[in-house]
């Protein structure tokens, strides 16, 4: 009997969308028919999304990859092995992966995400055991010293947020994971929840120990059914294995997690609107202060962090704060999972320490545009991020460098556009997006976005172009300074950056 050992096929939503389930079923059929000794393992994705479905087979010296594979390729692939034309050689040595620094995503695409045993074998729970030895104050100190900042938006120091929650007197505290990943061009939260869910659970448990919380919630975007199912399975498994629920690992500490499906609104990615939704109300922004760290869920001090922030914590505790802090530059420490999409040849996830340039991301990892036309613009930070020309591609990928040039990193989404893009139309879209997604709580956002879209449509029609451009600038100033939250406050960023760097797209009307 021929033996192939383990055959790995991603069960991630991105891979499934291009036929991974059909490939896995075909492999099972061929293996059974030919009497091949093999175990089929459904993993997460490695993040090489242009190559999905990516099939990997155990081999001496490391897994050998094949991709993109269709069900029609399976029979010949299993017969020919390395000689098959879809073979890419050792996966870990592929140029897209070889230069990455996988810290948060070290296990994604490597392990069976449903197996606690595999999680433990790949350094899982080391951070939690270390946290139990350290105690609350030392945990917070370690996270603070690591330099970890929130990976979802403004980059606020995580340790300071945890310290505030821990020191605020209360009869209860909570940990809330914001997994309402709604920015265009972002998928890292989903990828981690589907490919390494125990990492998020471990990070949340450590956060609970640090601030004295016994209950946590994961608020997952409703459009992520695979992630919701995988996280619920992982929570149930973690309880059975003893590192979630009562008496964690026999320590006497308690912490449990509840999975909640999001309300289907972009605004629920804003932390206070998310808390409103968790409490059973319509997702609308709350005025701040008070901050959620002082008065959050049900009026109690609440840690609100996103998936990537919490999933980085186990490594910090396991390896030490210095290990994490030594990665990165300036005040941007550690690694950032960067998500490449749009008109790009090699879309996927890149995890690197802060400090590489935007050009490296777009040209070396992304391979330029998929269309083969020149890159004209890159948007970083989701639909509210700035549109940058190629002249800014040498900007280092770190919080301060982006801020100095009028941009933001946000959740790490990088969307590429070729020279066929109309940036005046993209500016109109920014207003339209805000108008569609506004919760309606404040006037500058609710009305400003609609008036902005209408004014942009007049510009696109060639009506009084320069006076209307000035009107757009004035409107952006009102929205930036008067909006209650970042949706209205940041909508001017894509609009004004398009005006600054691509004025010809407006003037030619």
End-to-end CA span: 70 Å
The Cα radius of gyration reads 23 Å
Task: Determine the structural class based on helices, strands and strand pairing.
Answer: alpha/beta
Write down the overall mean pLDDT. 96
Query: Major β-sheet, in short?
Result: 5 strands, mixed
Tell me the CATH superfamily of the largest domain. NADH-ubiquinone oxidoreductase 51kDa subunit
Low-confidence parts:
none
Overall domain count: 4
Helix content bin: 40-55%
Oligomer: single chain
Reading off the top of the CATH hierarchy, the class of the largest domain is best stated as Alpha Beta
The CATH architecture of the largest domain: 3-Layer(aba) Sandwich
- Beta-strand content: 15-25%
In the CATH hierarchy, the third-tier topology of the largest domain is known as Rossmann fold
Strand order across the biggest sheet?
2-1-3-4-5
User: Which overall shape is indicated by the principal axes computed on the Cα atoms?
Assistant: globular
Number of helices, counting only DSSP H or I runs of 4 residues or more: 22
Number of strands: 16
């Amino acid at each position: 009997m021929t033996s192939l050992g383990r055959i790995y096929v991603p069960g991630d939503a991105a891979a499934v969308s291009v036929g991974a389930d059909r490939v896995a079923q075909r492999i099972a059929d061929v293996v059974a028919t030919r009497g091949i000794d093999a175990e089929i393992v459904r993993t997460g994705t490695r993040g090489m999304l242009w190559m999905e479905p990516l099939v990997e087979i155990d081999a001496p010296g490391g897994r050998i990859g094949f991709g993109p594979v269709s069900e029609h390729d399976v029979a010949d692939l299993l017969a020919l092995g390395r000689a098959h034309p879809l073979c890419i050689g050792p996966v870990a040595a592929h140029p897209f992966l070889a230069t990455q620094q996988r810290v948060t995503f070290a296990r994604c695409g490597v392990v069976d995400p449903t197996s606690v045993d595999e999680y433990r074998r790949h350094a899982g729970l080391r951070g939690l055991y270390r946290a139990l030895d350290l105690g609350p104050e030392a945990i917070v100190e370690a996270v603070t010293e690591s330099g970890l900042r929130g990976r979802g938006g403004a980059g606020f120091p995580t340790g300071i947020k945890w310290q505030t929650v821990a020191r605020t007197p209360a009869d209860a505290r909570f940990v809330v994971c914001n997994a309402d990943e709604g920015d265009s061009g972002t998928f890292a939260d989903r990828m981690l929840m589907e490919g390494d869910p125990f990492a998020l659970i471990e990070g949340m448990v450590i956060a609970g120990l640090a601030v004295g919380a016994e209950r946590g919630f994961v608020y997952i975007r409703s459009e992520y059914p695979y992630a919701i199912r995988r996280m619920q399975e992982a929570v149930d498994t973690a309880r059975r294995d003893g590192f979630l629920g009562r008496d964690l690992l026999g320590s006497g500490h308690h912490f449990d997690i509840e999975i909640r499906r999001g309300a289907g609104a972009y605004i629920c990615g804003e932390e206070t609107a998310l808390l409103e939704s968790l409490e059973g109300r319509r997702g609308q922004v709350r005025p701040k202060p008070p901050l959620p760290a002082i008065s959050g869920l049900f009026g109690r001090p609440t840690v609100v962090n996103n998936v990537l922030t919490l999933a980085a914590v186990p490594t910090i505790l396991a390896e030490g704060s210095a290990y994490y802090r030594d990665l990165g530059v300036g005040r941007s420490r550690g690694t950032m999972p960067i998500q490449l999409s749009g008109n790009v040849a090699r879309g996927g996830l890149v995890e690197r320490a802060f400090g590489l340039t935007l050009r490296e991301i777009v040209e070396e990892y992304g391979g330029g545009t998929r269309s083969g036309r020149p890159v004209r613009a890159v948007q970083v930070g989701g639909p509210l991020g700035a549109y940058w020309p190629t002249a800014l591609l040498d900007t280092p990928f770190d919080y301060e460098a982006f801020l100095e040039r009028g941009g933001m990193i946000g959740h790490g989404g990088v969307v590429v556009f070729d020279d066929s893009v109309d940036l005046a139309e993209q500016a109109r879209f920014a207003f339209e997006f805000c108008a569609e997604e506004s919760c309606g709580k404040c006037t500058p956002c609710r009305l400003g976005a609609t008036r902005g879209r209408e004014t942009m449509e007049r510009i696109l029609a060639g009506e009084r172009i320069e006076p209307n451009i000035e009107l757009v600038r004035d409107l952006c100033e009102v929205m930036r300074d008067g909006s209650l939250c970042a949706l209205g406050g940041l909508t001017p960023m894509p609009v004004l950056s398009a005006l600054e760097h691509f004025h010809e797209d407006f003037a030619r009307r």
